[in-house]
C-alpha cells in the first residue's frame, strides 16, 4: 500500500464522522452508529482495493454492513485487511461527550488479527517504554517499569482506565502504588494512542475493553512506535470457539504487538466526531459546509499527519 491510499481512507472516516456528527447530543446512540456505518460502507466502495473486513460490526447475521468477512472496495488492486470502528464512542456521541472517533486501519491481507467480538485485557505504553511491560507482570511491577523508563516517580504516572465496574480491583491496585488515574467513559483506542503522544500526560493504559478496539489500537501503536499487548477475555464458550474458528491455535495466549498487527505496512486513520484529546470534532460552518479534523498514520514511513478539511457540500447556499 502506498501513501495514496492514506488519502482515500481518510475520506472514508471523514464521511462517517460527518454523518454521525448530526446525532451528537441527541440521545440516540443507535442512530448515530448506523449513520456512521452507512456512510463508511458507501465510501469504502470507491476505494480501489480488494478488501476484507477483519474487524467490524460483528458476525454476518448480526450486521447487514461492515460485518466480519465482508468484501469491500472496488475489488481491484491489492488485497488488504480492513479493521473499522465506524463510531468509537456511540454513547459519547449520544451524550455529546468527548473523544468520539471514526476509525479505520488497513494492512496487507493476513496482517491484522482476526479477533472475535469479545473482551481483551490490554496494556499500552509509548515508545520510551515499549515491550518492557507485559501482562505477565503484576500491576505494580508494570508501573515500576514505566516509571523507570520515563524517569518519573510512581506518584507522577498517569494511568488510563475505562470507567467500568469490572475495573474496581485494578483501580485499587493502581491507587496502592500511588499513581494518578484518568478514568475514561468510552474509547480505549483513544486511550491507548494517548500513551504514545508526546503532548499527552497519559503514561500507560490498563484494563479490559473490546478486542476489536485492541486490534485498531495496535495498528495505531505500530505507526506511533508505541507498544500494546493483549489477551482475550472470553465471556462464554461460544466466543472461545469462535476464536479457534478464526485461526487462533491458543486462544489464551498473550498477544504481543506483532501478533495483533504484523509487519510495518500498516495504516491507521481516524476522524474526530466530537472534540477530544488529540482531534477536534466535526464543526458545522455557515451555508451548510462542514469542517473535519483527522489523523493519518503510516508505520512504514513513521509519519503522522493531521488533516483539517473543509467540505463545501453541493446543497450549500452561497
Question: Short description, anyone?
Answer:
The protein has 318 residues and is an alpha+beta fold.
Characterization of the model:
- With 318 residues, the chain is of the alpha+beta class.
- The chain has two domains: 3-109 and 266-311, 2-Layer Sandwich (Fructose-1,6-Bisphosphatase, Chain A, domain 1); 119-260, 3-Layer(aba) Sandwich (D-Maltodextrin-Binding Protein, domain 2), CATH 3.40.190.
- It is 31% helix and 26% strand.
- The strands form two sheets. Strands 1, 2, 3, 4, 10, 11, 12 and 13 form an eight-stranded mixed beta sheet that branches. A five-stranded mixed beta sheet has the order 7-6-8-5-9, sandwiched between helices.
- Helix 1 packs antiparallel against helix 2 (29-44).
- It is globular.
- The termini are far apart.
- The model has no long low-confidence stretch (mean pLDDT 92).
Core attributes:
Fructose-1,6-Bisphosphatase, Chain A, domain 1; globular; alpha+beta; 318 residues; 9 helices; D-Maltodextrin-Binding Protein, domain 2; 2 domains; 8-stranded mixed beta sheet
Tell me the Rg in angstroms: 19 Å
Please provide the ordered H/E string of secondary-structure elements.
HHEEEHEEHEHEHEHEHHEEEE
- Output the CATH topology of the largest domain: Fructose-1,6-Bisphosphatase, Chain A, domain 1
Give the overall shape, derived from the CA principal axes: globular
What's the CATH architecture name of the largest domain? 2-Layer Sandwich
Distance between the termini: 39 Å
Helix proportion of residues, in percent? 25-40%
Helical/strand content category:
alpha+beta
Find the CATH superfamily of the largest domain. Answer: Fructose-1,6-Bisphosphatase, subunit A, domain 1
**Which segments are poorly predicted (pLDDT under 50) over 5 or more consecutive residues?**
none
Enumerate how many helices there are, as a single number: 9
- How many distinct folded domains? 2
Amino acid at each position: 500500500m502506498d501513501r495514496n491510499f492514506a488519502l482515500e481512507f481518510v475520506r472514508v472516516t471523514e464521511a462517517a464522522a460527518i454523518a454521525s456528527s448530526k446525532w451528537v447530543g441527541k440521545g440516540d446512540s443507535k442512530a448515530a452508529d448506523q449513520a456512521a456505518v452507512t456512510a463508511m460502507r458507501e465510501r469504502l466502495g470507491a476505494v480501489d482495493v480488494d478488501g476484507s473486513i477483519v474487524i467490524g460490526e460483528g458476525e454476518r447475521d448480526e450486521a447487514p454492513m461492515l460485518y466480519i468477512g465482508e468484501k469491500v472496495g472496488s475489488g481491484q488492486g491489492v488485497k488488504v485487511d480492513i479493521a473499522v470502528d465506524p463510531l468509537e464512542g456511540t454513547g459519547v456521541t449520544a451524550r455529546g461527550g468527548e473523544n468520539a472517533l471514526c476509525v479505520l486501519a488497513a494492512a496487507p491481507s493476513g496482517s491484522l488479527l482476526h479477533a472475535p467480538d469479545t473482551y481483551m485485557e490490554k496494556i499500552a505504553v509509548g515508545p520510551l517504554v515499549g515491550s518492557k511491560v507485559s501482562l505477565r507482570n503484576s500491576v505494580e511491577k508494570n508501573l515500576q517499569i514505566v516509571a523507570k523508563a520515563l524517569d518519573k516517580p510512581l506518584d507522577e504516572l498517569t494511568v488510563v482506565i475505562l470507567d467500568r465496574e469490572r475495573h474496581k480491583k485494578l483501580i485499587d491496585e493502581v491507587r496502592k502504588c500511588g499513581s494518578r488515574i484518568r478514568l475514561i467513559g468510552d474509547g480505549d483506542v483513544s486511550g491507548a494512542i494517548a500513551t504514545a503522544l508526546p503532548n499527552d500526560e497519559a503514561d500507560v493504559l490498563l484494563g479490559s475493553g473490546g478486542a476489536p478496539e485492541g486490534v485498531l489500537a495496535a495498528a495505531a501503536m505500530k505507526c506511533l512506535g508505541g507498544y500494546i499487548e493483549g489477551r482475550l477475555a472470553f465471556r462464554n464458550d461460544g466466543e472461545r470457539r469462535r476464536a479457534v474458528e478464526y485461526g487462533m491455535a491458543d486462544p489464551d495466549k498473550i498477544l504481543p504487538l506483532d501478533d495483533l498487527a504484523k509487519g510495518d505496512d500498516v495504516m491507521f486513520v481516524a476522524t474526530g466526531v466530537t472534540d477530544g484529546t488529540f482531534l477536534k470534532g466535526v464543526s458545522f460552518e455557515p451555508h451548510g459546509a462542514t469542517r473535519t479534523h483527522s489523523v493519518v498514520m503510516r508505520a512504514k514511513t513513521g509519519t503522522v499527519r493531521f488533516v483539517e478539511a473543509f467540505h463545501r457540500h453541493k446543497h450549500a447556499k452561497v
